Structures are given as C-alpha cells and as structure tokens.
C-alpha cells in the first residue's frame, strides 16, 4: 500500500500542493489526472524523494518511505533521462545493474523486456537514432527492468502509438496481477478510464475527487436518465422534472429524484420507448465536473 497523506508544497507565493491525500493499493492501477500545473508531477517527485514536502507524509504499508524502499520502485520522470549515445540494450542493462541486478540477471531481464516492448530489432542502436516514440519505450524499459515492487510513472503513454500503448498496458496489467501498485499520470482520459481501477483528479494542488472508476461514475451519474422515444407527441418533454436536453428522439434528463418511473410513464404515453436507463458518465465528464 502506497499512502500519500496531506502533502503541502509551496514555491514562494505559489501553492503547488494543498493537502493532497490518496492511496494506491497492492495490485491496483491508479490514474492520476489533472491539468498542466495541477500538482501531479510535484506529488510524484515527493513520493520518489526528488523533492521534499513542506508537510505531510508518504508511507508504504503504514511506515515512512526509506531510500531502500524507493530504490526498489520503478520511476519514470516527466523529463526523460537517457544517455543518447549509448546503445539501447547496454543502457537498459546498465540501469538494471544500478538497481541491484546481477550481470546475468540484468542481461536476461533486458532481453525479455525489449522483446515485450518491440525493441529487440533496435537493441544495438544508439538512443539518439530512435524515434521519440521508441525513446519513450526505452525509458519505460529502464523503469521496469529490475522488476520493481511499485511503479511511479509520469506520463508513460505520451508519444506512443496505439500498438506501443497496448504493449505497455499489457506489461502494467501483468505487474498489477502480481500485486504491484501502479501509479501513473496521464492527460489521456479515455486511456485512464480503460486501464485504471481507481482515479485521483487533482486541481490547483487539491484532490478534487478520488475513488474507483465505478464509485466516481455512481457518484456523478446519479440523477441522469437517458431516453430514446420514437414518434413522440410534440412538446411532451415540457412536463418532465429536472433539466432536459433533447437531441432528436434522444432525451437526457438530469437532476432526477427517485427511480424515474414517473418519467418512464410519461414517455410511454408520449411515444414508443426504445431506451430508458441511467446514464453512466465518462471519465472526461467526471473530470470536467470535478474541476469546475
């Protein structure tokens, strides 16, 4: 369990973090989302010991994180840090050794990871000869090579093509299945929604919403009904309670109280009901509502 508790951080008059609190459970993929400057990178840097918080704590299983704990984490910073003239295989293997792997262990882990990330054919190329997307894959391999006990990844999917996204998502899912907590930030909300068990939404240094994706959908989706009514009587929606938005035969009603049976009854009287159900908001809608 990785626990972030009441983190505060200021840079002069600028408040970067204002009481950030959330946790990432073992085997959980946690998506950390927010606008540029919201506090995502600052939180991750404090978690990894790159920055020191003004107050608050970062714990693992209830105990303060130590240098040795962080050494066993896999970290991908926002600013990539690769040796541009070093060959891909040598570089990943080198970082594996720095993280404590034996020479044989580092070589084996590097070969397996490069194959998984479709980098085997570029293993002997210098990093500066690679595309930005492939450099991103190498940076990910560096974070993963030592089989970390937790993963802290700042925008890991940035610049990746769909095939590379799928490959990385598969690797992260395997690590989660093995009980590894995974925290990653991203601006790609559709990707976060697809991959993550839980989400934290940060705005202006504060956590505006957090919880499992299902919890957030349930919380934000209450009172939202979607209906499709064919051949309806003109103006029938005027008597509906709540806020009504019409798009042809599709009607979205928000602010609904109760089970919505009154609305269903009116819809049946007005026309042919093809759809009636509570609408589940997307993560993008939840994000907009949380930071509004």
TrEMBL record:
InterPro entries membership: AAA+_ATPase (IPR003593), ABC_transporter-like_ATP-bd (IPR003439), ABC_transporter-like_CS (IPR017871), ABC_transporter_ATP-binding (IPR050763), DrrA1/2-like_C (IPR025302), P-loop_NTPase (IPR027417)
Domain ABC transporter: 2-229
Compartment(s) of residence: Cell membrane
Pfam families associated with the record: ABC_tran, DrrA1-3_C
Main location: membrane
Topology in the lipid bilayer: Peripheral membrane protein
Coiled-coil stretches: none
Alphabetized UniProt keyword annotations: Antibiotic resistance, ATP-binding, Nucleotide-binding, Transport
A GO term, aspect molecular function: ATP binding
Homology family: Belongs to the ABC transporter superfamily.
Protein name: ABC transporter ATP-binding protein
Organism: Streptosporangium vulgare
Organism classification: Bacteria, Bacillati, Actinomycetota, Actinomycetes, Streptosporangiales
């Amino acid at each position: 369990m990785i626990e972030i508790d009441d983190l505060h951080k200021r840079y002069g008059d600028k408040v970067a973090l204002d009481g950030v609190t959330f946790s990432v459970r073992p085997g959980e993929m946690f998506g950390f989302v927010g606008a540029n400057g919201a506090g995502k990178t600052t939180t991750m840097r404090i978690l990894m010991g790159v920055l020191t918080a003004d107050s608050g704590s970062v714990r693992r299983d209830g105990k303060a994180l130590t240098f040795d704990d962080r050494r066993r984490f896999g970290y991908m910073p926002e600013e990539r840090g690769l040796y541009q003239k070093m060959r891909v295989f040598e570089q990943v293997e080198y970082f594996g050794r720095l993280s404590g792997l034996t020479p044989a262990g580092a070589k084996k882990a590097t070969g397996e990871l490069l194959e998984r990330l479709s980098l085997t054919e570029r293993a002997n190329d210098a990093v500066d000869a690679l595309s930005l997307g492939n450099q991103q894959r190498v940076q990910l391999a560096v974070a993963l090579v030592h089989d970390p006990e937790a993963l802290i990844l700042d925008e890991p999917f940035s610049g990746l093509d769909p095939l590379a996204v799928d490959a990385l998502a598969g690797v992260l899912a395997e690590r989660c299945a093995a009980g590894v907590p995974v925290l990653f930030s991203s601006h790609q909300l559709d990707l976060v929604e697809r991959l993550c068990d839980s989400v934290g939404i940060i705005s202006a240094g504060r956590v505006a919403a957090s919880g499992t994706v299902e919890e957030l959908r349930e919380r934000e989706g209450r009172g939202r009904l979607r209906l499709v009514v064919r051949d309806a009587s003109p103006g029938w929606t005027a008597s509906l309670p709540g806020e009504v938005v019409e798009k042809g035969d599709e009607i979205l009603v928000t602010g609904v109280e109760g089970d919505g049976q009154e609305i269903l009854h009116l819809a049946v009287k007005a026309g042919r009901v093809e759809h009636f159900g509570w609408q589940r908001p997307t993560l993008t809608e939840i994000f907009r509502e949380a930071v509004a």
